Amino acid sequence: MKQFAxxxxxxxxxxxxxxxxxxxxxKYTYELMPATTVAEALRMYEEKGLSGMNITTPFKxxxxxxxxxxxxxxxxxxxxxxxxxxxxxxxxxxxxxxxVVNSLRNAGxxxxxxxxxxxxxxxxxxxxxxxxxxxxxxxxxxxxxVSKVEAxxxxxxxxxxxxxxxLKQTEKYTVLVNALPVLPExxxxxxxxxxxxxxxxDYTCGILRDxxxxxxxxxxxxxxxxxxxxxxxxxxxxxEEPDVAAMQLIMNKVxxx
Length: 257
Known about the structure:
Number of strands: 12
Strand content: 15-25%
CATH superfamily of the largest domain: NAD(P)-binding Rossmann-like Domain
CATH class of the largest domain: Alpha Beta
Structural class: alpha/beta
Helix content: 40-55%
Distance between the termini: 32 Å
Number of domains: 2
Shape: globular
Largest sheet: 6 strands, mixed
């Protein structure tokens, strides 16, 4: 039986295990495999004889030097959330791009020509930006340090603004993607409007959901992002179609729990 895992730090809360079990109904095994370093995670992969591994915080960027062959998205983003071993080579992919775009499309959002604001320039923020650009959206990236955005030479050119400047000037945007930690300063300063759709990367913190509700903003939980990044990841692992309906059912139960 093929075995798969999720690795990262502080992953006990992760819903990936439930998603995988729903996807394949016990045909394969999946475990949460915490590690303290990327090297340790890869060593455990080999020892356990895994067939694929999902990568989460804080290893998505740290794993890049270990990858032998990476797809174009990983090259541009500089982060991977999927690795597996093929012919003695580590292969790296990034499905967060799909997670963002398909979360929004599934919610009925037409991204072509939409004005989108991405908050943050870590691995999740870069994946969100690339996905939105590919979907034909106009994207602005807000980050505390704008020079970090401009330093990514492999990334398509994108409009950038300092985070402090943009939080109170959000009217022109339709879609906001938050890929920053939800800190008090963000909650206090961000201006949301009824015409906004807000997609959150982190599904463990619901503070911005309450801010969005008070503003009349449509809120999409990071659980949607998790679901839609998992679907292509599981296909890559198994070369089989996961049971998407069962995966959606699990996520709906989590949301309404």
